[in-house]
Amino acid sequence: MSASSQRAAAAFRIDTRPAPRFQRQLALLVVGLAGLALSSLYLTLQAHAPELFRFWLLLVALAPALVLARRAAQIRPRQLRWDGQAWWLQDQLASAEERQVQVELLFDFDAYLLLRVQAVPSRLLGARIYIPLASAQQAQWSHLRACLYATRSALASP
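The structure assignment produced for this chain is given below.
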């Protein structure tokens, strides 16, 4: 089937909303991983130079991890729209302006998706936004998944 005979997915939009329960779970996961990493670092450093490192250093290092975990777990209200040819993202808190984005499907667990969104044209170190989605929050779940896979395969084929 040639590219000209392929049918584009119909236009639709999805809205992301804060999900307090999910955000708490995500923050706990990030804090737990940071705690494990800092504990490993603490034990390693204590074995090599015990007089330099005290337990309070671990607690001081954990504070920024808590702040970062809370920030990483925030889900801002956004609107992701597919117009049949391109993806558009509107951050409803920052501005009313839509910008064209590339959407990459990172994880698909049937009822949950994790999308990575990056502005077009992408800068070398452009800001990437990670958007977790749950089927319970989206009315057009099947349409979204079909569109993500259709655009993914269209980009992969020559």
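Interim note for the steering committee: Residues 51 and 150 are 59 Å apart (CA to CA). Strands lie at 12-16, 78-82, 87-91, 99-108, 112-119, 128-134.
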